[in-house]
Structures are given as structure tokens and as C-alpha cells.
Specification:
The chain is an alpha+beta fold.
Length: 1108
């Protein structure tokens, strides 16, 4: 069995030693307490060791055995290194192994940096990029909580490099950071002190959020230039890919330099605190920890009192540096103000004016109880992005002004008019687009000299508005940078506004919500380029064009008001000013690259790296002349695929081609290059990817990795884990699979698919069930899974209210098409609109933290991939869940499905006979083809969800959280209770391993039927497959448990490694394979018609009215 060591000083992190494989039961279990690297926080409780099954909690030593925990841990690392860099890798970059390697070598920044650069090298592959996005929760968690102790922002740089490749990835990471900011901010939205406040993590997230936005806005500074060089034949494809990567790395390196000194200072202070506690010193003076560029200069022995400091300190600069572009002295600004804070979404009472010290930086307004240099503490902070800053005229007090955004409202008073105007100017500057770079204020601006110069200038017109100073002029965004900023901001605002509708509705009476919802959702502003982000970067792009407000649905609960929205989406549109062929299958990353990665026509708006000196006007003109001369020398052959468009636009071509506009590398050429390398003479270590990476990047293999590779290859024999497994390595690669693409199925009479399903010669790929409109043609894509159309029609009467999703989406699209034709008589400027129309659905939720559900769904998705790789035909429905903050998020809507509660309450559900009678009523006699197909679907899905419910400890499995679709599949939803966390906790009624009711058994034909035996076989086979991939699953849980805020990993009941230990126990890793089948059958037996399950359903029926 696995050994665990809990280090409570590191926030409950668990060190997993490699787990023995099941058939090695003769080896005694071991336990070890391995101290980990300091986490940057003082220990709150004495170090303890988790109690492995079969051992006492006080066992701190390693019992005698064939191999110690430390040695097994090293063998585990050997296996990981071999799986990623070994010769048997076969050209793959297994992201699950990469994530585990980073975690296992987290105490060695050199290894982490090497791994980050290695993955970035191959991120141009769609498969590798999909893996990066899939493991983004773990990567982000390590960036926030693990990397805070390092001197170098290694993983942060890696994330910034990937963000430059895909704006969708940047958005996903931004939403993760938003939730973390709310976890660690000084106060809650209601204005109360936040018990989880962590200044280091909070400011780290704020800084990273700003850095991501800079990467998106500035992009890869020379990407367009490199693309043109490649198209002209000046560089090869391999050179283009390498130079593009180096450009992104350089950009990320410059951005992450900001804040390094702050990180060092915070870690030093934390270490001093820990030393003080170890020495039992009662009191010690430490320098105050302040925001990234705030420098304290006070004398600890001669500091004035806060009140005296507030009276004597004038509004002034905090620090000064020199701007290398202008040579001007620039300063950061801070001072005392009187303030009041009000709440926007809750009732509040007026409070007295308080004297507080304010500082502005990084689009944040920081509020201290007094000046940081004399020991002031951060008590409040407000994001300034998009904030509205206004003077409060006609008030009771003079010189009042306010800054407010969606959640916060600061009301402040200055000492005089000049000071108020200056503060308002600075706050407005931070709320605007040009505040993307660190806020710098010139001394001339503070003294009012800039305004005087502008007023004296004959070419400038003075007015009352805030103008951009000459010191800020070089920071003005170019048109393409402004477009990227607008998209990035508008997309986040669009998602936030949709979630806000659900938040507004929950404060209304349930009977009013249905009538109010259409008006509220129709009032949401739709940006010109917006999409529903429940997808991957490699999924098909679909632009939100309009909203079907009248079809909005709301669900009334006691604490929330979830809302289903329907949006009309379009794809296959022309991009920007491009008039070339339209591609309906462009993915999200490609579309956004083509739409926004265009060169600027403004000569002074040259794309440049951050920190690069701007060229003079003469130098720019000289470069432009040289550029024109070079372009005139280029001859385009007749067979060349390059368009004759201007250089200001990008051609739209097939993303699978190697031409311009694609963000993905040529995988076929890359493979041929690797195969060529492998045939070269020499006795070099490692696989082809490793050698290619090291040769292209001229990097040295870290000593610890080199030692692991040399050790493995010199022995050329199986590791300890392999020897015990007996058949193959337990760390087999698990590619993450997606739901299969649905081929066209003429489910409706007016549907037509086949050769005609194309747009400008491009075949149309379906992105899911439902219907699309292409021209005047309605095309239906519909799942069948062996069930005939007449059975599906009967099922939809009970499940879908008489209208399938294919029919409903077709009806909506016809309405939209007819309305568009009447109003505009066509598409763009009167020409025919040949775009493909689609309906995109989502569920918006508020007052609900979806982050734990995101992680549980990730684990379900991982196990689905494990089963598929092992050829076990278990069925699981993985759907998208996006947490956009601590209390809001979006969920993919499951179509053609209803809850079992809703099914049993339907008027057309049989009055007697339960689900077996429903099966025969809908799918026909037990011997019919449709009945057997639906029964097979039921068995495979029931076995899949029974297994993951047991492994992941899913609870609260009432009939409102279990759905059934028209084809007979069972689908579990709502994972608020997971990893053993249950309603009632120790008093939980759900004692069975999983839910297996009499209704379910009757559908299968009883416990003696062949279907039930198939269910048992699937459960056993799936359990074995899960055990063979247990190390990766345990690692994913361990990473997310490290300093976690998830309810299932915190508190006295589930914190301190308890959940991980229970997860490990449920995997039965100490049980040999020969006994697994028996143990699995025991789980099934104890679940059959469990009394606890029945009592819980009765309780839910009594308390919430859910059907039994």
C-alpha cells in the first residue's frame, strides 16, 4: 500500500511514496514522515503522520520490509522520468506524467524549469496543448501555492508563454485566479474581515492576473514579423517555431521580473516568523510586508504615531525611478484620505469617516490603517479595472469622490480640490486600458507642470477631461493591442453579466423569476466577438450572435436561482476584413489568432517587446521603406497558396495546412524530423523529443534528471513497481479522450446530410447533438446509440416534454433565420449570409462555488480515459463546468435528459411497475432491439457511475442529482459532496458504497439475469483498470489538496490528508489482483437495495419533495 506523510506545517500537503501494486501483498506496508520544503507559512499544529490502514497513528518509523518508503519514492521518480524521457515513449509528451514530475521534483526549481521549457517546446501540438489545458487546475494550483516560495517565477512564465498561444487558455487561468483572489483577499464582499486572508497569495494572484492580461494584449511581439519571414522563405518551419517560442519566452521573462524582490522579502519575513516560534520568543520586530513595489523607509525606533503621521504626512510619491523611454523621473503615488466604504449588493449602515493611507498600483487601490513604512497593515483592497471614478457633488462634505465597480464602492474625501482632482486622475488612469503596464506618474504631472505645458501649447486644446500626459504617450496601445484588450475584457464582462442575472433573480420571489428572466438576459450586452467558453482551445469556434431570451428557463431553489440560457452562435464567418474562403471548423485558438494577431498600420504603433525602446519617427519610416522594397522583390508562384490580400490582413486557410494563420505546428513534419534524429549515429541518452528540445534550446539537462535517466537506461530493467506489477508498467500513459464526434444522422424529416454538408468546399464537423442551419438547409446531428426513432419519440414525451433537443434547436434556428431575413435581407451589406447557425446552451449559477465540482469532473474525465484505454466499455458523460469566481460559474446543459425525480413526476410515467414498466412502455418488449440497446446503455452507464461514485466518495445521490436520457443512460450531476464528504457527516445515511436501488436492478432483469452479470463484470474490470492507474489519480488529488480551500479537503473532518488516505483505501491497493474480484463483488452486494439508501431517499422526499 502507499505510504503517506502529513506535514501540517505545509498546509496539509501529503507526500505520496509510490504505491505497491496489488499483487505484492506479502510486502508489509510502510509509513514515513518525510519533511518537505517550507511552504512559507508557520506551522499551526505539531507535525503528525497519517495512519495508514493497518498501522497505528503513532507509527513514525519505517517498519522492516523489502524496500523503504524513501527508496520506493525514488523508484517512482525513476519511472516517471523514464515514461517522459525514455526511449520507449514513442513520440508522446504525456502531460499527466509531466504534471507528476513537476510535483515530485517541486523542491528542485532547476528540474521544474527544465520541464516547463520542455512542454512549452511542444505546445504547438494540439494533443500536447489539450493535455496542458486538462491539467490546468493542477498547474494553476502549484503556481499560486507552491511557487510563492521560489525566487524564480518558473511556472508563471510557462503559463504566460501558453497564454500567448491561446487567449482561451488565458481566460481559463484568469477565472481560476479570480476565485483564488476572493479566497485570500483582505475582506469579503460584504466588508467583513476575511478569515482566509493570505497577503502573499493574494498579491501573487493580483500580480499574475495583470501579467496574463499584458501577455494577451501585447501578444508575441514579433509573431507577425516571423510569420512573414517564414512565408517569404527566409526561415524554415522549424526555425519559425523555435524563434516564435523564444519570442514568447522573452516576453514572459520580462513581464515576470516585476515583483521578484517582493516575493523574496515576503519569504524572508515568513522564515523569521517561523524562527521566532521555534525559539519561543514572545515578541519580535519585523519589517512590514507590503505590496510589490511599496518601499518602507521609516525608522523603527523613531516612527511617529499613526495619528501624528496622518496629520504631518502630505500626499506625495512613494518611490521614484527613471523611465528609460523618456528619461523622465517617474513616481508611485500614495497618501492619506478620509474614506467610507459602502456595499453594493447588501444592506449597509453608514459609518464614520476614517483616516486611511491609500496607495495605487497594478490596477489596485490598497487601503492601509496607516503608512506601511511605520508598520501599517493592509485592511482593504479594491480592483480598479473598469472602475467608475466620479466626484460627489452636492454632498454634505467638500472634496468627496467615489470609486466603484461591481462589488466595491469606496467613498473618499481629500484635503483640497487639487488633491481630489489628482487622485481622481490617477484612479481613472488605472481603470483604463493603458493601465496594463505598471502605473507610473511623472513628477511633472504630480506638480501640475504637465497640465501647464499642455495648456501653453498652441496645438493642444485644453478642456475639463483627463488627458494623457507626454510621459504616458509611449504607453498608448496600438489598434491591434486595443482590440485584444477589448476582447479579453468584454469576454469576461459578458460571462460575469450572464452570471449576474442569476444572482439578481435569486433575490426575487420564486413566482416572479420566470417572468423577469427574459428581460434581464436580453439586457445583457453582447460584445462583437464573444463566445461561450465551455470548451477547449482546440474545439470549434462559435461566435455568440444573439440570445433567445424568451426561451430562458429558471430553477427555483432555496438559496439559488440557476438559469438556462440559449444563444444563437455562428461559425464559418469571414474573419476581420478577410474575404477569402470561410472555414466552419476553425478552432477557438486559431480563430482568435487570425482575428486579433494582425499587424498595425500605424507607423508609430509598432509591435514591440515590453521594455523595448521605441524607435524614432525617422527610424520607423526608414524601416517601412525597406519593408516596401523587400515586398516588391517577392514573386509569388502560380501554385503558391498565398493570397493576394494586403499585408495588413491574414489569409483564412485550412488550419490543417502549413500556411499562415495557424497557431499549431506541423506535427507530420515534426515526426519526420524526430525519426531522422533517432537514426543519427551516437549514443545519446533520452528520447527524440528530449534531444530535439536540448539541441534547439541549447539547455543542459538538470543533474537530478540526468541521474534518473542514466540510472534507468544503464540497468535496462524494470523498476520496483514494474517487478511487482508483473505485467507492464503501472504508470501507463493515459491520453485524455473526448466525447466522440457525432456523424450526421437524418433524425428529422427535413434534415439532410452527406456530400452537400460543406461550406466553400470545407466539410462541416458537428460539435454535438442538435441542429444547425446552413443557408436554407436544416441539418440534424442526433445520438442514437442503437435506439430506433419511434422509441426515441416515445422517450422524449416523458423526458423532454415532447420535443427533442434536435427539434427544439431547429425550431429556434428557423425563427432566428426568418427574423434575420426580414430585418436585413441578407448578410453582410446585402450579400447572402452563408454562415452556419447553431444554438449554444449554458446554465449560469451564482451563490455557488463550483471549483470542487470542476475538480471532481476532471477526475471523472480522467477515469473515463482510463477505461477507454483499457478497452472497458463503461459509459460516463463528461460535461464542461467553468468556475468564474468563488461564487459564480457556467455549466454545460445536458440535453434530452431529465432527473429521475422529474421522470417519475411526469404525467406519462407509468403509475405502477417503476422504471422497468417505463422501459417497456418506451422501448418496447424486452426482446426488441431498442429495449436491449437502451438496457445495454443503462448497464454500462450504471456500472461506470457506480464505480466512480465509490472511488471518488460521491454522496448526496438523491433522485434530483441523478439524470436519465432518452437513450437509457444514467448521468450523475452535482458534486458538492465528494471524497467522503456527506450531508450529516458522521451521521450520514448514505453508508452504501454506491446507489443501487431495486428500480435499477429491475431494469437489468434481476440479480440472476445476464445483464446483472454484465454489470458485475464491467464493475470489476473497471475497478482493476482504475487500480492500475492509481498513482496518477492519487497525485492529482494530492496536488489539489495542498493548501486547498475545497470543502472536501478542509476542516477537522476532511483536512490534514484524511480525504486522500480514504481515497487510497477505497482503491484497495494493499489487495492483490487475485482478490480484487471478490472485494468488488462484496461492494456490489452491500449496495444492493441498501437500507441507508432507501432511508435517504425517504428523507429527501419528506424534506424537499423529491420522488423516491
Amino acid at each position: 500500500m502507499a505510504t503517506t506523510a502529513i506535514d501540517t506545517s505545509s498546509g496539509g500537503g501529503i507526500e505520496i511514496s509510490p504505491t505497491e501494486t496489488p499483487n505484492a501483498s506479502n510486502a508489509p506496508a510502510t509509513s514515513s514522515a518525510v519533511p518537505k520544503k517550507s511552504s512559507g507559512q508557520a506551522p499551526s499544529t505539531p507535525q503528525t503522520t497519517a495512519k495508514p490502514p493497518g498501522h497505528s497513528a503513532t507509527s513514525y518509523h519505517n517498519p522492516p520490509g523489502p524496500m523503504s518508503g524513501k527508496k520506493k519514492h525514488e523508484e517512482f521518480k525513476n519511472q516517471l522520468v523514464h515514461d517522459v524521457f525514455g526511449r520507449d515513449n514513442k513520440g508522446r509528451v504525456p502531460m499527466e506524467k509531466v504534471a507528476m514530475l513537476i510535483w515530485q521534483f517541486r523542491d528542485d526549481p532547476a528540474v521544474v524549469q527544465f520541464m516547463a521549457q520542455f512542454v512549452a517546446k511542444f505546445s504547438g501540438s494540439r494533443q500536447v496543448f489539450d493535455g496542458i489545458e486538462f491539467y490546468l487546475p493542477q498547474i494553476a494550483h502549484m503556481i499560486i501555492h507552491l511557487e510563492a516560495d521560489w525566487d524564480e517565477a518558473i511556472l508563471e512564465r510557462f503559463a504566460l508563454v501558453i497564454a500567448q498561444q491561446s487567449q482561451h487558455f488565458a481566460l481559463q487561468l484568469t477565472w481560476i485566479l479570480q476565485g483564488a483572489i476572493e479566497d485570500y483577499q483582505p475582506e469579503t464582499v460584504e466588508g467583513r474581515p476575511n478569515p482566509g486572508y493570505n497577503q502573499l497569495f493574494y498579491l501573487r494572484c493580483i500580480t499574475l492576473l495583470s501579467n496574463i492580461e499584458r501577455c494577451v494584449v501585447y501578444g508575441s511581439p514579433r509573431s507577425i514579423e516571423l510569420e512573414k519571414m517564414y512565408e517569404k522563405g527566409e526561415i524554415t518551419r522549424a526555425q519559425y517555431e523555435q524563434m516564435k517560442l523564444e519570442d514568447r519566452l522573452n516576453n514572459a521573462r520580462q513581464i515576470t521580473t516585476h515583483g521578484v524582490n517582493f516575493r523574496k522579502m515576503v519569504v524572508q519575513n515568513v522564515q523569521k516568523v517561523k524562527q521566532v516560534k521555534l525559539l519561543n520568543v514572545k515578541e519580535v520586530k519585523l519589517p512590514s510586508v507590503i505590496t510589490p513595489t511599496k518601499h518602507g523607509g521609516g525608522n523603527a525606533n523613531n516612527n511617529p504615531s499613526p495619528r501624528a503621521d496622518a496629520k504631518s504626512t502630505a500626499t506625495s510619491v512613494v518611490s521614484s525611478t527613471t523611465d528609460k523611454n523618456t528619461g523622465k523621473q517617474i513616481s508611485k503615488y500614495g497618501g492619506y484620505l478620509l474614506y467610507k466604504r459602502r456595499f453594493r449588493t447588501a444592506c449597509y449602515k453608514r459609518k464614520a469617516w476614517k483616516s486611511r493611507y491609500f496607495e495605487i498600483e497594478e490596477r489596485m487601490l490598497y487601503c492601509y490603517n496607516h503608512r506601511p513604512s511605520i508598520g501599517g497593515k493592509l485592511i482593504r483592497a479594491m480592483p480598479l479595472e473598469g472602475a467608475d471614478v466620479q466626484e460627489k457633488k452636492g454632498g454634505k462634505y467638500p472634496f468627496m469622490f467615489e470609486a466603484q465597480n461591481h462589488h466595491f464602492e469606496f467613498v473618499m474625501r481629500a484635503k483640497n480640490m487639487n488633491e481630489m482632482q489628482l487622485w481622481m486622475k490617477l484612479l481613472r488612469g488605472e481603470s483604463e486600458a493603458n493601465a496594463l503596464i505598471p502605473h507610473i506618474i511623472s513628477d511633472d504631472e504630480i506638480d501640475g507642470k504637465e497640465e501647464k505645458k499642455q495648456a501653453d501649447s498652441p496645438t493642444d486644446k485644453s478642456d475639463d477631461t483627463v488627458t494623457t500626459t507626454s510621459a504616458q504617450a509611449p504607453l498608448k496601445l496600438t489598434p491591434s493591442q486595443q482590440a485584444r484588450y477589448d476582447f479579453f475584457k468584454n469576454e469576461r464582462d459578458f460571462v460575469a453579466n450572464v452570471c449576474d442575472v442569476a444572482e439578481v433573480l435569486r433575490f426575487h420571489e420564486p413566482k416572479e423569476r420566470k417572468a423577469l428572466a427574459p428581460g434581464l438576459i436580453s439586457a445583457v450586452r453582447l460584445p462583437e466577438c464573444a463566445y461561450v467558453p465551455l470548451c477547449k482551445s482546440t474545439d470549434v469556434w462559435r461566435r455568440v450572435d444573439s440570445v433567445m431570451a424568451a426561451d430562458t428557463r429558471v430553477f427555483n431553489t432555496n438559496e439559488r436561482c440557476p438559469m438556462i440560457c440559449y444563444f444563437v452562435a455562428k461559425r464559418g464567418e469571414r474573419i476581420g476584413t478577410t474575404l477569402g474562403p470561410k472555414n466552419p471548423n476553425l478552432d477557438v485558438a486559431e480563430y482568435l489568432h487570425m482575428q486579433f494577431q494582425v499587424p498595425d498600420t500605424d507607423k508609430l504603433g509598432r509591435l514591440s517587446a515590453i521594455g523595448e525602446e521605441a524607435l524614432s519617427k525617422d527610424e520607423v519610416e526608414e524601416q517601412e521603406e525597406e519593408k516596401v522594397e523587400e515586398e516588391n522583390e517577392i514573386e509569388i508562384e502560380k501554385g503558391d497558396s498565398k493570397d493576394d490580400d494586403d499585408d495588413d490582413t491574414l489569409g483564412l486557410e485550412d488550419p490543417t495546412d502549413s500556411g499562415r494563420g495557424t497557431v499549431w505546428s506541423e506535427e507530420s513534419k515534426s515526426k519526420s524530423f524526430l525519426s531522422t534524429m533517432s537514426s543519427l549515429p551516437g549514443n545519446r541518452k533520452g528520447n527524440d523529443q528530449l534531444r530535439k528540445f536540448m539541441e534547439d534550446n541549447v539547455v543542459k539537462l538538470p543533474s537530478r534528471l540526468a541521474m534518473q535517466i542514466n540510472r534507468f537506461e544503464s540497468r535496462r530493467k524494470m523498476s520496483y513497481l514494474d517487478r511487482n506489477a508483473g505485467s507492464g508498467a503501472p504508470l501507463t500513459t493515459t491520453p485524455i479522450i473526448e466525447n466522440p464526434i457525432i456523424e450526421g444522422d437524418s433524425g428529422l424529416d427535413d434534415s439532410s446530410v452527406g456530400d452537400s454538408l460543406s461550406l466553400d468546399g470545407q466539410s462541416v464537423v458537428s460539435v454535438g447533438g442538435g441542429s444547425i442551419i446552413m443557408g436554407d438547409q436544416v441539418v440534424t446531428f442526433q445520438h442514437a446509440d442503437g435506439v430506433d426513432k419511434s422509441s426515441l419519440d416515445r422517450a422524449k414525451e416523458v423526458v423532454s416534454g415532447g420535443e427533442s433537443w434536435a427539434e427544439k434547436s431547429a425550431r429556434m434556428l428557423r425563427t432566428v433565420k426568418e427574423s434575420a431575413t426580414k430585418s436585413s435581407n441578407g448578410g453582410y451589406g446585402g450579400e447572402e449570409d452563408t454562415s452556419i447557425y447553431d444554438i449554444v446552451t449554458l446554465m449560469a449559477k451564482s451563490n455557488d462555488d463550483l471549483r470542487q465540482e470542476v475538480f471532481v469532473m476532471q477526475m471523472i474525465h480522467y477515469f473515463e480515459s482510463v477505461f477507454a484505454k483499457s478497452s472497458v466499455p463503461l459509459w460516463l458523460k463528461t460535461y464542461r463546468i467553468l468556475s468564474t469566481s468563488k461564487s459564480t460559474g457556467l455549466i454545460e446543459v445536458l440535453t434530452d435528459a431529465t432527473s429521475i425525480d422529474g421522470l417519475k413526476k411526469s404525467d406519462k410515467y407509468p403509475k405502477e411497475g417503476g422504471m422497468r414498466a417505463y422501459w417497456e412502455q418506451v422501448y418496447g418488449p424486452p426482446s426488441s432491439k431498442s429495449f436491449l440497446a437502451a438496457q445495454r446503455n443503462f448497464v454500462r452507464s450504471l456500472a461506470g457511475y457506480s464505480l466512480v461514485s465509490y472511488l471518488l466518495g460521491l454522496k448526496d445521490r438523491h433522485n434530483g442529482n441523478i439524470m436519465i436520457d432518452t437513450r437509457g443512460h444514467i448521468i450523475h450531476i452535482d458534486f458538492g459532496f465528494a471524497f467522503g464528504m456527506a450531508p450529516g457527516h458522521e451521521w450520514s445515511l448514505e453508508r452504501a458504497p454506491f446507489k443501487l436501488t431495486k428500480d435499477y436492478i429491475d431494469v437489468m432483469g434481476g440479480i440472476t439475469s445476464g445483464c446483472f452479470k454484465e454489470f458485475q463484470k464491467l464493475f470489476v474490470d473497471g475497478f482493476k483498470a482504475a487500480r492500475s492507474n492509481s498513482l496518477t489519480a492519487l497525485g492529482l488529488v494530492e496536488i489539489m489538496m495542498y493548501k486547498s480551500n475545497y470543502p472536501c479537503f478542509t476542516g477537522t473532518r476532511y483536512g490534514g490528508g484524511v480525504s486522500l488516505k480514504r481515497f487510497e483505501k477505497r482503491l484497495m491497493l494493499d489487495i492483490p489482483d487475485s482478490k480484487v474480484e471478490k472485494k468488488a463483488h462484496q461492494l456490489i452486494t452491500s449496495s444492493i437495495d441498501s437500507s441507508g439508501t432507501k432511508v435517504y431517499d425517504i428523507f429527501q422526499n419528506y424534506s424537499n419533495g423529491l420522488a423516491i
